[in-house]
Amino acid sequence: MASRAPDFALIDQNGRFHQLGRYVDKELVVVAAYQSGCARDDSVLRELASLQQRFRDAAVSFQVLVPDPDESRKSLKDLADRLGTDLPFLLDSSQLVADALSFTHCGEILVVDPARFDVLYRGGIGLYDDHPLQLALAATIPGLSSHLHYIVHSELRGEPFIQDVMPINGDPLQLAELRAARARSVSYEQDVAPILIERCLGCHSERGAAPWVMSGHQMVQGWSQMIRETLLTRRMPPGQIDYEHADRFDDVHHITDDEMSTLLAWIEKGARRNPEQPDPLVLAPSESSEWELGEPDMIVEFPAHEIPATGVLDYMFVPIELGLMEDKWVQAYEFDVDDKLSLHHIIVYTQDARQQRQNASRGGSRTNFGGYAPGREHVVLDDSTGILLKRDMRFMIQFHYTTVGRELTDRSRIGLYFRDSAPDYPLVRTAVMNGEFQIPPGVREFPVQAETVINEDSYLFSFAPHMHYRGKHIKFTLRYPDGSEDELLSIPNFQHNWQMVYRLRDPVFLPAGSRIVAEGAFDNSRFNPLNPDPTQTVGWGDQVWDEMFLTWMRISPADQPLLRN
To answer: Which residues are within 8 A (CB) of 312 and not within 5 positions of it... i.e. 6 or more apart?
Structure first.
């Protein structure tokens, strides 16, 4: 069978991220299409669950694709519980993945080689029912329960298999969402460009972090197939947040099913525009300042650093006097990074006069103010909050550079934006972290957990999770003193290159005694393309080839009821 499957990514009923191209440690990925109410679907699911158990220790992954906007993760979790299986049910509410994989019927089976995306089989599951061919195969290979069983058995043993395609007995898939999206007349000027301006232009601009600029329609059209691929794999927009959590946060990089359907329908039809109308991307307002947030109230220049071509560089700490004449409340800050290639991170600490005297031989004690990491160029605080900069404070800046094979010079700086008056909720930082882990060599998923206790009534405003190249996923659960729980944030596809700040739209009240629990995992295997060395045991360390499990959170004492604008 000569066809190839496109790469895609979805989240299952338990909030876990699955991407076809990430299963390179498997020889086969088996995907079955399911919609509730389809004929014989339960028998297909039960056979799939049985095969998953039979081949649990083999190099094969069994998955169920659910192109049904009426389903939810809860309903799919209930279905899995009823079947007594931990099969991943991948919710495809937009129906775009089902379409990309050319699924047409319930119970349709796709067997894919994830290393090359070759489709090895497409057809029915072929439950054994006294068919002559099946009887002959069962006599040769005892215990076979379906044609799919025979295919998986043969492929894993490197044996050829009979190419007969079993009939698909399920009903046609109901793809009303997809048909409705395709029936709409999609205009580049009226429909597509506004999405690109809202969701993409912030990074795909002259001073943005993206590798190419959305300067106009022609540029977008040239990149349209790449845009399609990054949307289907959820690689863009960056940020990795679980889309079920997106409405809970401000300024997240997220695209809705409807927006994705619009973009893909437009690309499918040739990514054209009306030459009689002006191009909205060309007319989009240009940046009035070299700062994304506008001209800062105060700019703090950092000293230039010469970065050698090779070697391992220790963290550098540089004190910088601010010269403030009065206390200031910071509303936002933005980093203007000169050399993003070698600068791994900047952490800005504050030191008042007392802290400068404490432990003075090692630079003084310090309080975390904020930081830069890839994807975290600026931070805007909630309107009712602020960070206090006292007039006797200075900055202590931590710089971490990595060498990239050529000499470089970095001249970065930070811009500060002040409030006109004191905020209702002064922010302080706390953290949840675990520095005691040891990740064994080669492990595909190594779980790590940490928690922190909130000792006084507080409000939680934001998260800033941090892991290195082996970071795989992380989620945060609030456990109240009465035993109830609230899942606050999940990042099922953590990416080191995008270290985001996630700001809650409605801050969460934390009664004294509440615990914030972080649960995550690392991938120290050779199948992690970013892994510096899968043969090493890895623990906490400063360098990117070490690891960290750390999340900074901004909270404020709950001295008064939270008032929202």
So the answer is: 403, 543
